[in-house]
Design a protein that fits this description.
26% strand; 9-stranded mixed β-sheet; hydrolase; EC 3.5.4.2; globular; alpha/beta; adenine deaminase; Amidohydro-rel; 29 strands
Length: 582
């Protein structure tokens, strides 16, 4: 196996053993540590020896040789394994590089990540190279094998095929199939998807479900078809149903489903006392949601709910590592594991005062001591650069027709409605809560036009290259301001732009493939808040406008979606009207 995923060479392993044999000094020793022994489920005192990126000994002894060894006394401190995020979407305005640097300061060092964006930006070979090379960062990234696009694509076979699924499943960096948003297709007889699921199981890998509102009968059926875990429980009863069906359960706390406090309370009411088959996930939340924390925030909620700290810390470390067969590498403070360690001043405070990632200090005594060189990443070398828009909008692109529009029900649910405005007007009356809505191919080959109701009443021009497929969303009451927003989007090479009366009001530049910023999470939080506040001032009233943009095309949600193929009725599984070639 490649050493990027922490399987060491023979020479490295021999060298590590010489430390135990007293022939070589370790690089770092943490003395007098009280650490979480996940094998015994108890706190134990020990000295921890580290050689470079690997823990080589945990016990009472000190090394025979300490020349050149850094020795740090942790008396009164607590050591827990680095936190693991089991379900993330690392392209939500941020990118894997910026997410990992931010999350490491808060103790999260391993990610199970969606590779959805990569499949749209590069061929499968380049995607696999990216998925490997990102592990040069101090964090570790493992990935999913997507089976479908959760939208209607014009050429789906270009992205999801027998060959691409096979290549993904052969990668040691891919640990699971899914998330299975297309489970109704499997349940109703889609043998192609079931074939890929069986290939996933034969490869010894897990399948992540996506089963919101699923009944006991459906959960049982999906378990029979190979699903191993689900993150969509919204009540304590639904958690119990999943556990009873034999599923692993990932409790979600995200920007559109901040359910965790309620879930933990209801789980206690259900009599759930064993947390060994339970994780915690933020499910790819947007930057501003992470301002209060990442995995550490979920741990804080769990501890405030009076969970035993041992159970809480194991839910974000050992439970995840064991489930994915990675407990020989992560989730334990034990010999042989990657030196991802969090040092706490108190077990009731999950925000680490110090963090080690692959044996290097990322944070020490509350201060960021990470090295910029450890977080360098060659984006352009992996084919990720500014979005080049080499075409212009024409007058005919602003032709809106059709009687069926899209009405917002909440951040992510949309339903059809009968359009009442004059679609041929240059500007929609200010009293209406309707806006023109366009989805345009990023290459300029096709477009689909409709009207959206309830997105924002006073939004005049808005353009976004951040979307489900990387195609362009353009929204507004004024066709002129929509064009202004588009031109600015084109000028900056991708982003989210709000225009009003010919002026740019707010924007987030996304120069990495039109969907990711190269700013730090801290900087991006400021920009996202500024944009969100500007949208709220213009009538956006739901939880998360960034997720609204992402899910306009997502056909795993009801009831009507704007997709590459056209306006799609999710319930009837058919097009209401098709996209138009430009």
């Amino acid at each position: 196996m490649n050493q990027h995923i922490a399987f060491w060479t023979k020479a490295q392993m021999r060298k590590q053993v010489t430390v135990i044999q007293g022939e070589l000094a370790p690089s770092l020793v943490l003395t007098n540590a009280t650490y979480l022994n996940t094998a015994l489920k108890k706190w134990v005192k020990a000295n921890i020896w580290i050689l470079q990126d690997r823990i080589v000994y945990v016990g009472e002894k000190m090394p025979e040789h300490t020349t050149g060894t850094e020795i740090t006394d942790l008396k009164g401190k607590f050591v827990v394994p680095g936190y693991i995020e089991p379900h993330c979407h690392p392209f939500q305005l941020y990118n894997p590089q910026s997410l990992s640097r931010y999350a490491l300061q808060r103790g999260t060092s391993v990610f199970l990540a969606d590779n959805f964006m990569l499949l749209f930006e590069m061929n499968i070979s380049k995607a696999l190279s990216f998925m490997e090379d990102v592990n040069d960062l101090p964090s570790n990234f493992f990935w999913w094998c997507r089976y479908d696009a959760q939208t209607e694509l014009l050429e789906e076979e270009n992205y999801f095929s027998e060959k691409s699924v096979r290549q993904l499943l052969e990668s040691p960096y891919v640990l699971q199939g899914g998330e299975l948003t297309s489970w109704p297709r499997v349940l109703h007889g889609d043998d192609t998807l079931l074939h890929w699921m069986l290939k996933t199981k034969k490869a010894g890998k897990k399948i992540e479900g996506h089963l919101p509102g699923a009944s006991e009968k459906t959960l049982t059926a999906m378990t029979l078809l190979g699903v191993d875990c689900d993150h969509e429980a919204m009540t304590g009863t639904e958690v119990m149903d999943r556990l009873n069906a034999g599923l692993q359960v990932s409790l979600r706390y995200s920007s559109i489903r901040p359910d965790l406090p309620k879930l933990l309370r209801q789980m206690k009411e259900e009599g759930i006392t064993n947390y060994e088959r339970i994780f915690l996930t933020t499910d790819g939340s947007t930057p501003a949601f992470y301002e209060e924390g990442v995995t550490d925030k979920m741990l804080q909620i769990a501890l405030e709910a009076e969970l035993d700290p041992v159970d809480a810390y194991m839910m974000v470390s050992y439970n995840v590592a064991r489930y994915y067969g990675l407990d020989h590498l992560f989730g334990m403070v034990a010999a042989g594991r990657v030196a991802h360690l969090n040092i706490l001043d108190d077990v009731t405070n999950p925000l680490p005062e110090s963090v080690l990632a692959k044996g290097k200090w990322m944070k020490r005594d509350g201060k960021d001591v990470s090295d910029d060189r450890d977080f360098q990443f060659d984006w352009e070398g992996h084919g990720i650069k500014k979005r080049e828009i080499k075409w212009d909008l024409q007058d005919e692109d602003f032709q809106f027709s059709g009687l069926v529009g899209i009405e917002m029900y909440n951040s992510v649910i949309t339903r059809p409605y009968n359009v009442s405005i004059n679609p041929f007007s240059e500007e929609i009356n200010g009293e209406s809560d309707e806006c023109f809505l366009m989805l345009i191919d990023k290459e300029g080959k096709w477009r689909i036009n409709t009207v959206v109701k309830g997105f924002a009443k006073n939004l005049y021009g808005f353009a976004s290259s951040y979307s489900n497929t990387g195609d362009l969303l353009i929204i507004g009451k004024s066709k002129k301001d929509m064009a202004v927003a588009f031109e600015r989007l084109k000028e900056v090479g991708g982003g989210i732009v709000l225009a009003e009366r010919g002026e740019i009001v707010a924007e987030i530049k996304l120069p990495l493939a039109g969907g990711m910023s190269n700013l730090s999470i801290e900087e991006l939080v400021v920009e996202e808040k500024r944009l969100t506040n500007a949208l709220r001032e213009r009538g956006y009233q739901y939880e998360d406008p960034i997720y609204s943009l992402l899910f306009f095309s997502s056909t795993h949600l009801p009831y009507i979606r704007i997709t590459q193929r056209g306006i799609y009725d999710v319930k009837k599984k058919g097009l209401l009207f098709p996209s138009i070639m430009r």
